[in-house]
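for the recovery benchmark. tokens below, seq after
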């Protein structure tokens, strides 16, 4: 069953209706009910109408690829009201608020939560750029923010580290953020930054962290971290990626599939799509598909596929699952 998982209805047809349709589509593989993209960025939005138009444009392209909902990272307080208005009406849209390292603003956080934000976003980019101490999150001023987030049961989507090398395969540059920091005399490392986040997690037990981009660690380290920190999750953005013409090697697929099956509750699908008015184009669509393709090539059993594609993110962010939308007779 693990080796050649099928769509659950294949087994159903064995006996249903006296087995009349037994064997019909016997080769159908498990398919995601829908994708919940748990890592996207929202920019350039002020009104609910603008936000609605942007979502309509994005889903118009990706509905055919079963994008069902997304989690957007929002920084601009002027957009909070628009996010509230849209998230109340449109279950495709949920959002989290981004606070800067030097802005542990409880009131701003509360305003965002009042407007329906389902979590907090933190990004270490400005720390790597040398603009803040590497352990700024351990400052007294941040403790009440982490406590408030933990008590609310909402997760932190945290961009903690940054790969040093370029990654031409998926398009990432070399020494992003770090090169700027080195010019300012930065001497701390990715390991130092990761240790700060882990310390925050130890000091605030129960805090749930979605490590952006797999925390830029390999799978051996990730397994250790998962085993040690039950509140730690990762999203697949910028790390789980298969280009349009590529097919995973069998060994790699087996490795990744085993990893997913071992940690199938801890992995959230994400694409890091930067959504802004006028920015929806083939680039963004293909970026999303490269992320989705990587998961689909793993040939996961149905249950694990549903978890990674949407159920894990829904559980973490406290959202009820959606009815998959089907238009007409096909749902590609
Ligand atoms: Zn991002």
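predicted aa per position
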């Amino acid at each position: 069953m693990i080796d050649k998982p099928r769509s659950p209805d294949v087994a159903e047809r064995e006996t249903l209706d006296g087995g009349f349709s037994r064997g019909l589509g016997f080769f159908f593989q498990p398919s995601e009910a829908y994708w919940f993209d748990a890592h996207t960025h929202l920019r350039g939005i002020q009104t609910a109408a603008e936000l609605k138009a942007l979502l309509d444009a994005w889903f118009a392209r990706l509905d055919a690829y079963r994008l069902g909902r997304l989690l957007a990272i929002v920084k601009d307080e002027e957009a909070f009201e628009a996010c509230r208005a849209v998230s109340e009406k449109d279950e495709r849209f949920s959002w989290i608020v981004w606070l800067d390292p030097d802005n542990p603003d409880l009131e701003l956080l509360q305003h965002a939560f009042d407007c329906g934000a389902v979590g907090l976003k933190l990004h270490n980019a400005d720390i790597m750029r040398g603009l803040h101490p590497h352990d700024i999150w351990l400052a007294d001023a941040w403790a009440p923010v982490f406590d408030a987030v933990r008590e609310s049961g909402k997760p932190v989507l945290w961009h903690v580290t940054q790969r040093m090398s370029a990654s031409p395969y998926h398009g990432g540059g070399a020494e992003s953020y770090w090169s700027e920091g080195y010019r300012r005399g930065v001497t701390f490392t990715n390991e130092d930054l990761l240790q700060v986040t882990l310390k925050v997690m130890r000091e605030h037990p129960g805090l749930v962290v979605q490590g952006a981009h797999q925390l830029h660690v390999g799978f051996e380290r990730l397994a250790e971290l998962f085993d040690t920190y039950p509140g730690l999750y990762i999203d697949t953005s910028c790390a789980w990626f298969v280009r349009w013409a590529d097919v995973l090697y069998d060994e790699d697929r087996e490795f990744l599939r085993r990893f997913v099956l071992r940690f199938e509750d801890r992995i959230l699908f994400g694409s890091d799509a930067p959504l802004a008015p006028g920015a929806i184009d083939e680039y963004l669509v293909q970026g999303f598909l490269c992320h989705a393709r990587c998961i689909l090539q793993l040939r996961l059993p149905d249950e694990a596929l549903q978890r990674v594609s949407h159920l894990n993110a829904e559980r973490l962010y406290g959202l009820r699952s959606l009815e998959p939308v089907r238009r007409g007779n096909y749902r590609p």
